[in-house]
């Protein structure tokens, strides 16, 4: 079994170089990409010219303008950067099928068993570097046995741990320096923090790529700073204050002591980098795409010819859907004309299907919307939205399972009707009512899209009293403000006489909700029969935030 090898790619200038590619040479000077962080414009990415001016990522934009007067600034577009990184992920698929995104500016490639196809690991990394250079991208690479080690090499290879000179560490180093000076020298030298000469730090030029040979992760990671373990900034600062600046300083410490002092997160990162803890590469799976096309030798324009083309394409498309266990929910038919114009119609289904006999009649209803013009020379049928279709087995409540199976086997007529109506009116125009758990009359049902909901199971729950056939918003009734049913009242500009009354039925508002329609308080409902035979649903509101009174809420006929 080949040894596991992981390649990490880091694009430190991804945001800026994406814009340079889009501008196609329109920006020649320093470029900075800025975003708002805590109400402050901060630089998120720089091109090479801006870095040469001394600018750094994370720097406030106002300071950058003071340092570089000719700086060109563009706002950050996270969605565009994510799409660009996804495109790079697909490009990296030429090196290995196991490619995953690492944060917002990196990729992780599992090269196990793939490097020999390019000659060697070094040759493969050289190919990656050449491809990135041709695309105008800056890249740093790291290759190791583990994901954590490769990530660390890509970002920190060639860098030394910077000394931490703050807080207690300064005092400790100052005392140690004075003690050594008294023993070794008769002349007392001044420490750099007290006016003496500062120590000379050797500048290290970072390498573009670093390969840690198989089984050599310890030696490759030991000189790197602790930030290479993917720790947060607070943890890195705490380790530096204690003098633990390099990964090698941590590798020699007992795991139990590190876990007790710094938590399990530090130990986990160490184990992942050294290969003691598993950390697999989880590649992003490309979404399924279903489409077929038919190129015609001669332009067509008759309805019969379009249907003949659909009869050729639709079975092939449904066969592909069946092979992947999917069904089409939304389809689009494109008709490309001879004059380089394109006509398209979209079809929605009430339920995902891969049956050509069900889809064809709905497409036929849409064909009249296509203008053939001077003729159509190419047809394309594409699935815009697909859903999984699985064989169902009895599970859970037996009656519910039986109902689900019956719907799948015999309930296609309703879905076909919804599909036909939706093809004419639009799927959003077809709705159905579902019962809701509420004692408020106007809240006992909900309106749902018929294409995206299941029919209500069983009968509707019966109310404690008869409910009107027509229900509207409460309308004011001119009558005395007393709970007794009025013998005479005026409603909708007309006088009404009482013939018969049944009630009252008291309904209280939902006290846990603030409903403006129920600010009049508790209601007493009456079924009122007028002298002309009209049955109305009146209620007396006892008053709350609004004054009491009589209202009409519905009619029984």
Please give the structural blueprint.
Elements: E1 6-10, H1 14-23, E2 31-37, E3 40-46, H2 48-52, H3 61-67, E4 72-75, H4 78-92, E5 99-101, E6 106-110, H5 121-134, E7 140-144, H6 147-156, H7 168-184, E8 209-211, H8 217-221, H9 233-241, H10 247-251, H11 255-262, H12 264-274, E9 291-300, H13 303-323, E10 326-337, E11 342-353, H14 356-366, E12 376-388, H15 398-410, H16 412-425, E13 431-435, E14 445-449, E15 470-477, E16 488-491, E17 494-507, E18 523-530, E19 535-541, E20 549-555
Structural summary, described in words:
The chain has 557 residues and is an alpha+beta fold. Among the domains are: 6-138, MutS, DNA mismatch repair protein, domain I; 291-388, DNA polymerase, Y-family, little finger domain (Dna Ligase, domain 1); 398-462, no CATH class; 470-555. Helices cover 31% and strands 26% of the residues. It has a six-stranded antiparallel sheet with strand order 15-20-19-18-17-16, with no helix packed on it. Strands 5-6-1-7-8 form a five-stranded mixed sheet. Helix 11 (255-262) packs across helix 12 (264-274), helix 13 runs antiparallel to helix 14 (356-366) and helix 14 runs parallel beside helix 16 (412-425).
Which keywords apply here?
extended; 31% helix; 16 helices; alpha+beta; Dna Ligase, domain 1; 557 residues; 20 strands
């Amino acid at each position: 079994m080949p040894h596991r090898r992981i390649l990490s790619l880091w694009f430190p200038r991804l945001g800026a170089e994406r814009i340079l590619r889009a501008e196609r040479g329109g920006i020649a000077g320093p470029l900075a990409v800025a975003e708002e962080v805590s109400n402050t414009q901060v630089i998120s990415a720089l091109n090479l010219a801006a870095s040469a001016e001394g600018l750094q990522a994370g720097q406030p934009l106002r300071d950058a303008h003071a340092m570089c007067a000719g700086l060109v600034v563009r706002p950050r577009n996270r969605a565009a950067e994510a799409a660009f990184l996804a495109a790079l992920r697909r490009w990296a698929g030429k090196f290995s099928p196991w490619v995953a995104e690492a944060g917002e500016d990196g990729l992780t490639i599992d090269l196990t068993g793939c490097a020999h196809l390019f000659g060697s690991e070094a040759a493969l990394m050289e190919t990656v570097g050449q491809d990135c250079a041709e695309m105008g991208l800056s890249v740093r690479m790291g290759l190791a046995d583990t994901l954590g080690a490769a990530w660390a090499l890509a970002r920190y290879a060639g860098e030394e741990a910077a000394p931490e000179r703050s807080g207690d560490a300064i005092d400790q180093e100052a005392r140690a320096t004075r003690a050594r000076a008294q023993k070794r020298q008769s002349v007392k030298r001044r420490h750099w923090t007290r006016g003496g000469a500062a120590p000379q730090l050797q500048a290290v030029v970072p390498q573009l790529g670093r390969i840690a040979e198989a089984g050599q992760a310890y030696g490759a990671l030991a000189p790197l700073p602790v930030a290479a373990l993917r720790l947060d900034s607070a943890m890195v600062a705490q380790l530096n204050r204690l003098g633990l600046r390099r990964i090698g300083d941590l590798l020699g410490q007992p795991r139990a002591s590190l876990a007790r002092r710094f938590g399990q997160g530090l130990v986990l990162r160490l184990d992942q980098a050294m290969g003691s803890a598993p950390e697999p590469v989880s590649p992003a799976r490309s979404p399924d795409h279903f489409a077929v096309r038919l190129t015609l030798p001669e332009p067509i324009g008759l309805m019969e010819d379009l249907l003949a083309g659909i009869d050729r394409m639709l079975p092939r498309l449904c066969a592909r859907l069946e092979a992947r266990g999917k069904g089409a929910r939304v389809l689009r038919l494109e008709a490309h004309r001879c004059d380089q114009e394109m006509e398209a119609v979209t079809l929605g289904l009430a339920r995902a299907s891969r049956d050509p006999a069900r889809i064809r009649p709905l497409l036929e209803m849409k064909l009249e919307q296509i203008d053939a013009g001077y003729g159509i020379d190419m047809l394309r049928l594409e699935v815009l939205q697909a859903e999984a279709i699985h064989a169902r087995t009895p599970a859970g409540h037996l009656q519910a399972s039986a109902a689900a199976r019956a719907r799948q086997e015999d309930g296609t007529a309703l879905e076909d009707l919804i599909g036909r109506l939706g093809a004419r009116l639009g799927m959003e125009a077809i709705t159905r009512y579902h019962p809701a758990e509420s004692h408020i009359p106007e809240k006992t049902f909900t309106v749902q899209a018929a294409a995206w909901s299941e029919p209500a199971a069983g009968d509707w729950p019966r109310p404690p009293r008869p409910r009107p056939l027509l229900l509207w918003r409460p309308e004011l009734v001119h009558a005395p403000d007393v709970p007794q049913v009025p013998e005479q009242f005026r409603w909708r500009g007309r006088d009404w006489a009482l013939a018969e009354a049944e009630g009252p039925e008291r309904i209280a508002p939902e006290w846990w909700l603030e409903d403006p329609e129920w600010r009049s308080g508790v209601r007493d409902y009456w079924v009122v029969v007028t002298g002309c035979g009209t049955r109305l649903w009146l209620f007396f509101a006892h008053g709350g935030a609004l004054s009491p009174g009589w209202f009409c809420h519905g009619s029984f006929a």
